[in-house]
Design brief:
Layout (H helix, E strand, L loop, with lengths): L1 H10 L7 H11 L3 H10 L16 H8 L2 E5 L3 H13 L3 E5 L24 H12 L4 E5 L5 H7 L5 E4 L4 H14 L3 E7 L2 E7 L5 H5 L10 H4 L4 H19 L8 E6 L4 E6 L5 E4 L13
Length: 293
């Protein structure tokens, strides 16, 4: 370790550690990309790939992100964007959970879907994509459907769980397991032009309140469909919440739902610990539960 650390210090210039130096260290010392990056961050050396993060994140905070373990449940429309952004942000371990394969109807919006990987498991594509864009990030691909029965095992050791599911029943099961395991959960839902985001900390019941009138079915997504842009917007908001949870910074979307209307470009805050409060371009014609699925 001492020899490796000395080598990294030699390559550390202008406050940054170049990617070429990280790759050379992997080759020369036989360490993994993840181990080299962890050692560098622990010793105050910022990998050059994160240089555009450094005006908003300290090296210590970058290390916090790198040592976090984030579970993304669902690797489709929302999940693909979430996984991409977490890897680029520098989250060190992503648990990708999804039982499905890519189908042709996924191609309009799912970042990981390409004609070449139709029929391929979504979690396999997630692993390949992260390995391509940030080899220092570890991905654990799990080709399985999340449910109450297997949830505790799937979320073992997880820092934050990110809901990218398309089933309300499974979302409620995820919320239940996260409560039992004391894991923060970031919930997102999309449908057509609409979406919403909620952060639920252990002990909260916002997600259950949102779906209190749900009877059965996936939600309104089947009726409204999903374009390319709605998943990208909502996924980005979810990753923002994950970052804030891990770092303990900022004000979370806790006990409140941020409702997004991209057709009229309106954003609403609906509180679940008091009266509803509209915070941006109010319009009484918009129904806050439109993205409930």
């Amino acid at each position: 370790m001492t020899e490796l650390l000395g080598y990294l210090h030699e390559q550390f210039t202008a406050g940054l550690l170049p990617w070429t130096a990280q790759c050379a260290a992997v080759e020369r010392f036989g360490w993994s990309h993840a181990a080299v990056e962890d050692l560098a961050l622990e010793n105050g050396m910022l990998p050059a790939r994160y240089q555009r993060n450094r005006n908003m994140l300290s090296v210590a905070e970058q290390l916090q992100l790198f040592r976090s373990r984030i579970a993304v449940i669902g690797c489709g429309g929302l999940g693909g964007y979430i996984i991409e952004e977490l890897a680029r942000l520098g989250v060190g371990h992503i648990v990708a959970i999804d039982p499905d394969i890519f189908e042709e109807h996924n191609l309009n919006r799912q970042l990981l879907a390409t004609p070449r990987n139709l029929g391929q498991a979504k979690v396999k594509a997630a692993l390949a994509r992260v390995n391509e864009i940030n080899p220092a990030v570890t991905v654990t691909p799990i080709k399985d459907a999340f449910c109450t029965a297997n949830g505790r095992g799937l979320l073992d050791g997880v820092t934050v769980a990110v809901d990218a599911l398309d089933s309300i029943s499974y979302r409620l099961e995820l919320a239940e397991v996260c409560t039992e395991m004391q894991i923060p959960m970031v919930h997102g839902a999309i449908g057509g032009w609409y979406g919403h985001v909620v952060t639920q900390l252990p002990g909260d019941t916002t997600v259950q309140s949102i779906y209190r009138n749900w009877v059965q079915g996936k939600g309104i997504e089947k009726e409204l469909g999903n374009p390319a842009f709605t998943p990208a917007v909502v996924a980005s908001l979810q990753v923002t919440e994950v970052c804030k949870i891990v770092l303990g910074r900022g004000e979370l979307l806790r006990n409140r739902k941020l409702s997004v209307d991209l057709l009229d470009m309106e954003f609403h805050e609906i509180r679940y610990d008091g009266p509803a409060k509209v915070i941006y371009f109010p319009s009484s014609e918009n129904e806050p539960e439109r993205a409930a699925g």
